Structure formats: C-alpha cells, structure tokens
Amino acid sequence: MFNITEELRKPGVKRVILDTDTYNEIDDQFAVALAMLAPERIDLACITAAPFHNSRSESYADGMERSYREIGICTGLVNKSHGAKIPPYYRGSTERMPDTDTPVESEAAHKIAETVLAYDGITFIVPIGAITNVASAILMYPEIKEKIGVIWLGGHARWFGGPEFNLQGDVNAANAVFKSGVPVLQFPCSGVVSHLIMEIHELEHFFRGNSPLGDYLCDNVAECKPNGAVSWSRVIWDISTIAGIIDPATYAASVQPRPYVVGDRDRYCAYEFDKYEGTIEHVDHINRDRIISLLINKLRK
C-alpha cells in the first residue's frame, strides 16, 4: 500500500476519476470545473454520477439522475467558457449497499474498474459524495485495489464524529472502502474542510460577468441566500480534494488507524478503530487562502 500524499508530491500529471453528486449542492460544480481546468496536473479520465437523497431529489436514484444531468450542464459550460475537453461521464448507483460485502451494479462501477485496469499507473479516485460507486467497483473488481488511491470528502474530523451527509449517504459503502485496505486520503468536513469559506461578494467580484461558467456558478450560490442576509458565505467543500491533487501544499495530513463507522443514515455516526487493520491518511488542516486563490486563478477567463 502506498502513501497518497507522497505520490501527489511527485511531479507530473495524475490520472483522476471524479465521482460526484453534482446536483446535491453548489460546490460540486466548482470541483468539476477545477478538475477540467488543470490539465498540467490532472488527466480527468471520466466523471461518474453519485446518488443522493435530500430536499433536492425525490429518491436516491433520482438524485443520481439529477447529478448525471448536472454533470452534462457543468462540463458543457466549462467547455464553452474555457475550451476544456469534456470527459466521458456515466450514470451511477440507484440504491445504497445493503451491507459491506454486496456491491450495487451500475455503469459507473464498471467504468471505474475498466478505466483503472486500462491504465498502467496509479489512478486517483475522488468521490465527493456517497461512496457507493467506488465501493461497488472495488468489491466487483478486487484486482483494482493495487492500482488506486481513494481521495474522499466524507465524514467529519475524528475529533468531531457525528452525522455527515456524504458518510450517511451510504455507511455500508464507506465501511467497505475502509475494510478493503485500499489507500485512503480522507478530507473530513466539520473541523477541517469547513474552513473553506467563500464570501458572496468575493464570488461575485471574481466570477460574475467573466464567463458563462462564472455566471452559472454565481447564480447557483445566489439561490442559497438566507432570508434578509446582506453579507453571507458558503463552504465550497468539494474543491478541497481537487486542489489537494493540483497542489499538495494546500493540506496537511496525518496517518491514523483505519476507522470503522458505527451508525447509519438515521442515527448518530461514530468512529471506532479496533475492527480494520492498517491505516489511512486523515487531513488535519487545509490552507483556505491558497485553495481559494487557486480556484480563482483557474476559473477566471
């Protein structure tokens, strides 16, 4: 098993698969654009649609389908605004894993494995939602375990614990990935990536009127304005993982015991550390200013 951070610190282009619940919120779109606009560092092999279920979807399957459509909209705007090549993208899982050993069939799971096996080097899989597609690919094609590193935005910092949206989207899938022994670099939400705040006036200043993509991103965020707010902000969670690939100096990580998640989507989630052998990398700190500057420099036309 290799250390993901050590691999990312090596110069050169990194092979990447992005797995995203793009319609769930407003931050996945930034991550898609950032990944497409860093060809000097990221070879974006494909994008897969992750499922989700909240007020923006009628079901887990509907969340995936909406995310699939949003990938098409977002990649099209990046292409229109910047001329970036549109990567292939695929539909993902329509249900959660019933347990840690039973994968969910999907086009995404098969394409993830197919893409990994067709490449001689390491492929970095970057799930920024529920991790169902990735866990299913590992279970169906265990031979990919030696050729991947998983960079996941999910769960809270281990000194926080508690329920987190991506983790609770499929707790069995998260445990399946931890259990598999594959290298994992975890970007936790509360306590770490929660510092990645962008203020609305900052967003409008740099992106409004700059390109069709910039206007679309601003419009998405503007829809989230709290009632009566004059100055407000949003956490742009998902760019943390992509920024970490482009510039590993944007984060600091420590090696920690491999966690086991207790709980499910309806109950409090907690980490335990006595079930799975081995370690993962846990991001303990991010450099907010360095990441936001990277985003602005890449997305401004």
Tell me what the CATH architecture is.
Alpha-Beta Complex
CATH topology: Inosine-uridine Nucleoside N-ribohydrolase, Chain A
Count of helices?
11
Low-pLDDT windows of residues: none
Derived structural class: alpha/beta
Return the average pLDDT rounded to an integer.
Answer: 95
Count structural domains.
Answer: 1
- Cα end-to-end separation: 40 Å
Name the shape in a single word. globular
Helix-strand topology string: HEHEHEHEHEHHEEHHEHEEEEH
Strand content: 15-25%
Give the CATH class. Answer: Alpha Beta
The level of helicity is: 25-40%
The description of the largest β-sheet is: 8 strands, mixed
- Gyration radius, in Å: 18 Å
CATH homologous superfamily title:
Ribonucleoside hydrolase-like
| Order of adjacent strands in the largest pleated sheet | 3-2-1-4-5-6-12-9
Strand tally? 12
Task: Outline the structure in words.
This protein is an alpha/beta fold and 301 residues long. It has a single domain, classed as Alpha-Beta Complex (Inosine-uridine Nucleoside N-ribohydrolase, Chain A). Helices cover 37% and strands 20% of the residues. The strands form three sheets. The protein has an eight-stranded mixed β-sheet with strand order 3-2-1-4-5-6-12-9, with helices on both faces. It has a two-stranded antiparallel ribbon with strand order 7-8. Helix 2 runs parallel beside helix 10. The longest helix is centred in the N-terminal third of the chain and has 23 residues, at 60-82. It is globular and about 50 Å long. The termini are far apart. The mean pLDDT is 95.
